[in-house]
Task: inverse folding
């Protein structure tokens, strides 16, 4: 099976979707001729023409707002916000319009859009190239929020998102674009070509939204993670020798609660890991759900390892980023060691 | 350089406040028929004056004059008059229903009836409007059932929106009326996107965007103009300048100079100003802009100069911020009276027939109201189910919502 980077997998997902359905259109800043600042849309304009893949003015509200209008017409726009940090001008359109169009019109109009945005830190991106705003989307009824962690899932989830009849926020951890990253910034990075999840089938396939994946089966403790933190958690489990069951949530909303609850009931312990800031982060929702659904099985308080409640700094990148050492400590503490 | 002294902060003020005498003598009103009608493929740079003048067809004696006249038959004009009268009667009844506690909220169109009613007739089937909350004339003029509008206002068991939306936030894809949102200006850029989609699909349908004077200050107004201009989207960008954004006079949004139409010029968009109380002028300009869009010539911005004669909404009291008699002083008059006088001058209408039509329309509206009320009002009778509250958010209800619906016991 061919191996692809996450960038190539995402591009392939759009290529496959555009090839299958001429209602799929792709646009955003630098997305057309240039092929995107991360190369995610490279060659799509040449292949499908300017009316299917094109450059947009630097106006996030305009990109999302026009996509909503296109979706209301009957197209399936898959648009890009260059960095998740720059989605805020579009937040009104995403939360008040895209999320609610079906509901407020009782299905008279619908909004099958996908909004792709590179997310997450670990790249010395500083305050506005590192944010993880997923909680600002999961809090909005009417949106679906997806965070892939590998090329195989990225392609399958993106095709599923494009085919989904509802608006989907598709957060791409840019730290994972070229290879998995476990937080060991002082070691060479492995490319996806050397990783089994870099195997990406040609053609059409989907990974269903709302289904988590168990990345490492274990019996001692459950780790809930997504995006880059999946690999950090794997490294932490190896380094502490703790038999952790690592769940890659893949979709935050709708959430695969069944997989989470089954795992925590088995292990009795739970650590939640995300890059986003702690307070009111998505981890708080996960923690509450675990407590509500697994209270009598819990043998330790649910722990959260997250970004600190500060803006994402530049020089202090590795003091901020929740790396394997911090996650490992949380695993040990939750085990009572 | 001479010392300019301390900086001073400027906040525009309307010329007259409550207690003052309304005065519009400084509003330049060009003579009817005086503004030329360019070809639809005109170079935008050559029609800059149109953004600063006012296109008018009906003169003081009710005659249709000038190059924008002569597009509508007597029958069409009579139908237009009836649409406007129906909307005004509908408004009055629903405003009263709100006062009677049958609904929580209402917004009238008083004085602005010509804008949406006449515009609607310039569109073709399949075109899509992206209206604000003050364009119900689009529905009335397209024959959308009044009972259904009232059901929505009453949030009753027959409400097509299942009680989820505030009154007057209608939606009808079938009638080319996009779902109304409470968030101002959002639909302006969505209209451009819809138009882009139509062009991408090599369709022949066009979109119409709607915004008020106050909301042009929102960022999405700018977004829409940039996108419309960049992609030459087949869209008519309508600005209804009714002089007031709740209590804020239009000078706060306009910056005290130029016109709203002039905003389009910087984007290379042909921009026209039209007498919003002149049914014939509104229709003629709308038709011009629609033909431009349909001929792949791109967007047009149209500013309708009118006056919000009623309160902003049923929750508003305009006497707190403007003279009570200001609407009487408005130099462009009343759209219904002006079309009525025109039809009388044509010899196809009379005061008697007008009075008779008023009575008939009132009967029709009251009959519709009775039917709607038989399905319930906000606080009495049939209402949408609690189950409806959970449904229709996603195409398929996700597990967490199913759990919440069970918790709610429905």
Result:
């Amino acid at each position: 099976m061919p191996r692809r980077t996450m960038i190539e997998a995402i591009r392939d997902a759009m290529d496959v979707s555009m090839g299958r359905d001429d209602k799929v259109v792709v646009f955003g800043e630098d997305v057309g001729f240039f092929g995107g600042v991360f190369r995610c849309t490279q060659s799509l304009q040449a292949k499908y023409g300017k009316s299917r893949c094109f450059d947009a003015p630097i106006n996030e509200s305009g990109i999302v707002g026009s996509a909503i209008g296109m979706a209301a017409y009957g197209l399936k726009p898959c648009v890009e916000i260059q960095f998740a940090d720059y989605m805020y001008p579009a937040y009104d359109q995403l939360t008040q319009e895209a999320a609610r169009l079906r509901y407020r019109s009782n299905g008279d109009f619908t909004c099958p859009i996908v909004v792709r945005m590179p997310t997450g830190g670990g790249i010395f991106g500083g305050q506005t190239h590192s944010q993880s705003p997923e909680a600002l989307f999961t809090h909005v009824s009417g949106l679906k929020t997806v965070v892939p962690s590998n090329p195989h899932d990225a392609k399958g989830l993106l095709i599923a998102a494009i085919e989904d009849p509802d608006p989907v926020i598709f957060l791409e951890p840019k730290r994972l674009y070229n290879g998995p990253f476990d937080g060991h910034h002082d070691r060479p990075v492995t490319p996806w070509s050397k990783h089994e999840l870099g195997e990406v089938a040609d053609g059409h396939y989907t990974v269903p939204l709302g289904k988590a994946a168990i990345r490492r089966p274990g019996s001692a403790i459950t780790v809930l993670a997504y995006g880059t933190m999946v690999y950090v958690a794997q490294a932490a489990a190896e380094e502490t020798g703790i038999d952790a069951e690592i769940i890659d949530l893949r979709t935050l909303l709708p959430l695969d609660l069944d997989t989470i609850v089954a795992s925590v009931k088995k292990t009795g312990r739970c650590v939640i890991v995300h890059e986003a800031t702690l307070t009111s982060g998505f981890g708080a929702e996960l923690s509450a759900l675990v407590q509500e659904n697994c209270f009598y099985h819990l043998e330790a308080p649910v722990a959260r390892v997250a970004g600190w409640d500060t803006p994402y700094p530049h020089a202090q990148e590795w003091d901020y980023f929740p790396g394997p050492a911090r996650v490992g400590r949380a695993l040990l503490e939750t085990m009572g060691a | 350089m001479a010392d300019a002294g301390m900086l001073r902060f400027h906040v525009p003020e309307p010329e007259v406040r409550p207690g003052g005498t309304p005065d519009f003598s400084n509003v330049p009103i060009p003579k009817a028929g005086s503004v030329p009608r360019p070809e639809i493929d005109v170079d935008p740079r050559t029609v800059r004056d149109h953004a600063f003048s006012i296109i008018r067809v009906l003169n003081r004696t009710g005659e249709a004059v000038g190059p924008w006249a002569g597009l509508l038959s007597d029958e069409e004009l009579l139908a237009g008059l009836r649409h406007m009268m129906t909307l005004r009667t509908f408004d009055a009844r629903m405003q009263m229903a709100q006062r009677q506690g049958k609904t929580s909220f209402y917004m009238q169109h008083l004085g602005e009836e010509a804008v949406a009613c006449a515009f609607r007739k310039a569109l073709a089937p399949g075109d899509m409007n992206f209206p604000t909350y003050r364009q119900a004339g689009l529905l009335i003029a397209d024959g959308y059932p009044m009972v259904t509008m009232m059901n929505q206002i009453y949030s009753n068991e027959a409400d097509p929106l299942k009680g989820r939306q505030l009154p007057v936030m209608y939606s009808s894809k079938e009638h080319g009326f996009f779902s109304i949102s409470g968030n101002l200006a959002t639909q302006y850029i969505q209209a451009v996107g819809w138009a882009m989609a139509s062009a991408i699909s090599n369709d022949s349908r066009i979109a119409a965007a709607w915004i008020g004077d106050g909301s042009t200050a929102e960022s999405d107004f700018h977004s829409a103009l940039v996108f419309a201009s960049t992609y030459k989207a087949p869209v008519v960008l309508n600005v209804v300048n009714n002089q007031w954004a709740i209590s804020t006079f239009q000078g706060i949004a306009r910056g005290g100079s130029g016109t709203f139409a002039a905003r389009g010029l910087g984007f290379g968009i042909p921009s026209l100003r039209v007498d919003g109380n002149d049914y014939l002028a509104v229709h003629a300009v709308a038709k011009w802009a629609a033909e431009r869009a349909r001929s792949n010539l791109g967007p047009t911005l149209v500013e309708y100069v009118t006056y919000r004669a009623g309160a902003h909404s049923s929750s508003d009291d305009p006497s707190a911020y403007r003279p009570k008699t200001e609407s009487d002083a408005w130099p462009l008059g009343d759209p219904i009276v002006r079309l009525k006088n025109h039809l009388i001058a044509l010899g196809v209408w009379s005061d008697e027939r007008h009075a008779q039509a008023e009575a008939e329309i009132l009967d029709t509206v009251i009959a519709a109201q009775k039917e709607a009320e038989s399905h319930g009002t906000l606080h009495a009778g049939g209402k949408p189910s609690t189950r409806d509250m959970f449904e229709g958010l996603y195409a398929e209800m996700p597990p967490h919502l199913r759990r919440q619906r069970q918790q709610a016991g429905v």
Q: What stands out?
A: Residues 6-20 of chain A form the longest helix (15 residues).
